Amino acid sequence: MSNRKQVIVITDGDEYARKTLDYLAPKFGGTCLSHLSDNPTKASSQEVIKAVKSAPSEPVFVLVDDAGWHGVGAGEHILIDLDKDPDIDIIGAIAVASHTKNLEWTRFTFAIDNEGNLTANGVDKEGIPVADVGRVNGDTVYALDQLNLPIVVAIGDIGKMYGRDAVENGSPITRQAIEMILERGGKK
Predict the structure, then answer these.
(1) Phi, psi dihedral angles at 110 (to 5 degrees)
(2) What InterPro entries does the entry give (predicted)?
(3) Number of folded domains in the chain?
(4) Parent domain of 93
(5) Count of alpha carbons within 13 Å of 62, Cβ hemisphere only?
(6) HSE (side-chain half, CA atoms, 13 Å) at 2
């Protein structure tokens, strides 16, 4: 049995993502590090790693965001450093779509559209399926392809998607993504 901290990475850190994960994390018995999230992420890798290791419960939800920065930005540096740490196990990631069409994208295991349907197609920021099969555009997703993560779930913009993922509605799309990661994650 591993003593490594189980982490779920979310590639968004705006106020909607923070509010959504603060709402959902306790429902899964986990800890959300929303106090270290921002748009873009300003926390250092060392700060995030220290917070993960001292988190009182798992999974630990880590929100990283590059705010549209092209290439490897602050959020992706944290993602890479988390993956390298021997005491941390990234059991899955939620790849959040953005409008950065063809600038940055990642492959995913599957996507969930804004109605909760699983799809092989990518989704846009609103959670509507797009023509691209097996890839999603986003501004903090570039590094995900460099890592050997057990599961990557693509969804539209957390807490939004025409209100379908709003906290007031129970954030069903983000909840479903977390459930799928917990069900299938950690199995490389």
Answers:
(1) -160, 165
(2) SpoVAE (IPR025914)
(3) 1
(4) 5-184
(5) 35
(6) 11
